[in-house]
Each structure stands twice: as structure tokens, then as C-alpha cells.
Design brief:
The chain has 159 residues and is an all-alpha fold. 85% of the residues lie in helices and 0% in strands. The protein contains three helices and no strands. The chain is rod-shaped.
Length: 159
């Protein structure tokens, strides 16, 4: 009978110990494992349980909270870097467009100046051609009058 009582007491202690292990160790460990998996999947909305415990599970929970904060910071920094890169890309594009517009305007002004100079040169050439033709005509007229002085000279001489 004593043996049966001892056996029953031993079984009760074993079952009680198993329940204590399940409640105090297995459940918190499973809960923290789920949190780790969600954090690994970038789920930063997950709540960190067991942080108030004063044992190893509490220490693990605090470490997970730090890990979660670091994930959030890294994500924020990546977003800021992407924004900065996009702004820089847009600024480079705007600078290139401005440079192209400035170049186009400068070339346009040069073309306009050359065109204007060409028009003026053509007008000067026409005037020179007209003057040369008139000089040729006068030379031909003077050459055709062998013994007579040119009309201007006869007036100068008092004829």
C-alpha cells in the first residue's frame, strides 16, 4: 500500500512538473519563437510578449524588442535613402534639361548672328557689285572718248 501511495505521489509530482514545464517554459518559448519568425518576415507590427519577466525569457524578449527597433530604423533609413536617390535623379534630370536648353539658346543666338551677318554681307556684296559695275561703265565711257577729257575734268578746267 505504501508503495502504491509512493507511486501515486511520484506520478502526481511528475505530472505536476510536466505541467509546470509546459506553462513556464514551453508556452513562452513557443510564443517567442512565433515573434522571431514574424520579425524575420519584416512584420514590425508584432507585439513582443514576456518582456516583464525577470528570467531568461524576459531577457530574450528585451533582445527581440531591440531587434524590432533596429528593423524599423533600418527600414526607415532605406526609405530615406530611396527618397534621396530619387530626388538626386530628378535634380540631375532637371540640370541636364536646363543645360540642354541653355546650349540650344546659345546655338540659336549664334545661328541668328551668323544669319544676320550673312544678310549684311550679302547687302554689302550687292553694293560693291553695283559700285564695280558703275565704275566699269564709267571706265568704258572714258575709254570711248580718246581725246576729250572726262566730263568732270572739263568743268574743272573751265571749258
Amino acid at each position: 500500500m505504501i508503495a502504491a501511495a509512493l507511486l501515486t505521489a511520484g506520478l502526481a509530482i511528475a505530472i505536476g512538473s510536466m505541467l509546470a514545464v509546459i506553462v513556464r517554459v514551453t508556452r513562452p518559448l513557443t510564443t517567442l519563437s512565433i515573434v522571431v519568425q514574424r520579425l524575420a518576415g519584416n512584420d514590425t507590427a508584432v507585439e513582443i510578449p514576456e518582456m516583464r519577466r525577470n528570467d531568461e525569457f524576459g531577457s530574450m524578449a528585451v533582445a527581440l524588442a531591440i531587434f524590432k527597433a533596429n528593423i524599423i530604423d533600418a527600414s526607415r533609413l532605406r526609405a530615406e535613402q530611396a527618397d534621396n536617390e530619387q530626388r538626386q535623379s530628378q535634380q540631375r534630370k532637371a540640370d541636364m534639361i536646363k543645360l540642354a536648353d541653355t546650349f540650344e539658346n546659345a546655338v540659336g543666338e549664334i545661328v541668328e548672328t551668323v544669319s544676320s551677318a550673312s544678310t549684311e554681307l550679302e547687302a554689302s556684296a550687292t553694293t560693291l557689285t553695283s559700285t564695280a559695275e558703275r565704275a566699269q561703265e564709267l571706265t568704258t565711257m572714258v575709254a570711248a572718248r580718246p581725246n576729250k577729257p572726262p566730263p568732270m575734268c572739263s568743268r574743272c578746267l573751265g571749258d
